[in-house]
Amino acid sequence: MAEKLDHFDRALLQTLQRDAGLSQRELAERIGLSQNACWRRLHALRERGLIRHQTVLLDPESLGLGLTVFVMVRTRHHSRDWLDRFREAVVSVPNVIDFYRIAGDYDYMLKIVTTDMNAFDAIYRTLIARVELDTVTSYMAMEAICDRRDLPL
After folding, report:
1. Residue (of 112, 111, 109) closest to 101 by Cα position
2. What is the CATH topology of the domain spanning 61-141?
């Protein structure tokens, strides 16, 4: 069930999505609250699970991670044991930055960032060595047009 948010809660969340590095004073000033009121609301939003964690977005290109690959996986196996082994194999690869179970023609989708095609091939070989997959289709991103958007509030 969706959480009820008032104007200040929405403003806090929208502002944090754009810049989670703001000081509490700056955040309070931007949304028109005292620092104490801002702190209480932030604490309540964290307690309610609306703020899971705060992080920093890094530029993959600047870090030598110029290849983004979307990997679509189809499997014949749907047992809990297989899923546990697959999840463990995928999560153990730090280059997999997003991992979803999906509906449609494929069962899973992975977003992988890496240096180049050779590095991607090594990741692919690691995954298929750890768990049996039926079909693996990979799509190389040519350009990130909009790769991280704020959640609509």
Report:
1. 109
2. Alpha-Beta Plaits (3.30.70)
